[in-house]
Amino acid sequence: MLSDQTQAELVQQIRQWSRELGFQQLGISDCNLESAETHLQRWLNAGFHGEMGYMARHGLKRSRPQLLEPGTRSVICVRMNYLPEPMTQSRQRLADPATAFISRYALGRDYHKLMRKRLQQLAKRIGEQIGPFGHRVFVDSAPVLEKPLAEKAGLGWVGKHSNLINRRAGSWFFLGELYTDLPLPPDQPVKNHCGSCRACLDICPTRAIVAPYRVDARRCISYLTIELKGPIPVEFRHAIGNRIYGCDDCQLTCPWNRFAKLSTEPDFQPRQRLDSRILLDLFSWDEERFLKLTEGSAIRRIGHAAFLRNLAIALGNAPRQEAIVAALKGRMDSASALVREHLEWALQQQLSGKRNDAGN
């Protein structure tokens, strides 16, 4: 059993190690997520998770760390900045209907492996200091309520858009957790500073934030372009604009992100010019090229068919161009039934000129 003094000294040492490993902040949470569990259950009961069955699949393990990893007493939470470019540049890309907009977290190398490795290194240093201890690393890889844990650990507060916000760093950061059997002193949560602000609710293209702190994933562009496996509902297609993988609108408008810091991690910098590719360029990729150029990227997990589905919608929303019409027609014969349905919709938009450019 560690004494109180030893615990305090160890925590200070862990914070120092975390900074050396490239994390911008570390906090410690206990395992009581009763309030978050209630919120999660209401969200699931409303069906807001859509086809994300994994959100309900693991029972109470998601909100009770001891059930997921027996013996857990404290959770070490970390955050790492990932913003690869100034937000003014991101806004410019989003405003150009010929450019493919990809959520900024996915422009670089997939963060899961990098952060998991760093957390494992942190655990190794702790073990070298105190001896063997029970632990398990998580980076969006298991049923973990990472945002409520990070909130309890003092890394920020969960905003009205459901992202974690930090007063000094905005919300452009990844989260990771180290479940431990160590009785570490928890940090204090910080106050919620959203106040009466409605910026994220008002900017959401599909009105997915149906109420403060309540997001209907079935309407969210990130869900529609990444998680949804079938056809994207017609009612949301114009609003998707040129967003082909995820959506950053709520972060781009959040006032607290004026304090956001650019990432210093080389792996989070844009790869394959994905920050500025035009739609027609990406649409020309066959499956082999898609797999090659998205290797090591989070984008790869949606597969080539969903990639083309998303691009077809974006091309349908783009200003009329004969090259787009020709490209859409050229894909028609070889496309799967899923992709073909979106190609037909996009072609109709191009030929009729009925587009909602406000979606951008």
From TrEMBL:
Keywords: 4Fe-4S, Cobalamin, Cobalt, Cytoplasm, Iron, Iron-sulfur, Metal-binding, Oxidoreductase, Queuosine biosynthesis, tRNA processing
Organism: endosymbiont of Tevnia jerichonana
Record text on cofactor binding: Binds 2 [4Fe-4S] clusters per monomer.
Catalytic activity: epoxyqueuosine(34) in tRNA + AH2 = queuosine(34) in tRNA + A + H2O
Pathway: tRNA modification; tRNA-queuosine biosynthesis
Function of the protein: Catalyzes the conversion of epoxyqueuosine (oQ) to queuosine (Q), which is a hypermodified base found in the wobble positions of tRNA(Asp), tRNA(Asn), tRNA(His) and tRNA(Tyr).
GO CC terms of this entry: cytoplasm
GO biological process: tRNA queuosine(34) biosynthetic process
PANTHER family, alphabetized: EPOXYQUEUOSINE REDUCTASE
Protein name in UniProt: Epoxyqueuosine reductase
Entry's family note: Belongs to the QueG family.
Cofactor: cob(II)alamin; [4Fe-4S] cluster
Catalytic activity, EC: 1.17.99.6
Binding site for cob(II)alamin: R62, D140, L164, L175, S222, C247, D248
NCBIfam families given in the database record: tRNA epoxyqueuosine(34) reductase QueG
Binding site for tRNA: K229
GO molecular function annotations of the record: 4 iron, 4 sulfur cluster binding; cobalamin binding; epoxyqueuosine reductase activity; metal ion binding
Annotated Pfam families: Fer4_16, QueG_DUF1730
UniProt-listed InterPro entries: 4Fe4S_Fe-S-bd, 4Fe4S_Fe_S_CS, QueG, QueG_DUF1730
Catalytic residues (UniProt): D140 (proton donor)
Localization in the cell: Cytoplasm
Stretches assigned to the 4Fe-4S ferredoxin-type domain: 185-214
Record: residues binding [4Fe-4S] cluster 1: C194, C197, C200, C254
Assembly, per entry: Monomer.
